Amino acid sequence: MKVVFSAHHRLHAPRFEFSRGGLTPYSECPARAEGIRAALSGSGWADFVDPRPHDDGALLAVHDADYLDFLRQAHRAWTAGGGCGDLAAATFAARNGRRPGDCVAQIGYYGFDTTPIAEGTWAAARAAADAALTAAELVAAGEPAAYALCRPPGHHATRNQLGGYCYLNHAAVAARWLAARGPTAIVDVDYHHGNGTQEIFYEDGRVLFVSLHADPAWEYPLYWGYADETGRGFGAGLTHNVPLPAGIGDDGYAAALGGALDVVRDFGPRWLVVSLGFDTYERDPLGTFRLSLDGLGRSGRALAGLGLPTLIVQEGGYCVEALGDLALRFLDAFR
Ligand code: SP5
Ligand code: ZN
Question: 113 in ligand 1 pocket by Cβ < 6 Å?
Answer without folding.
Answer: no
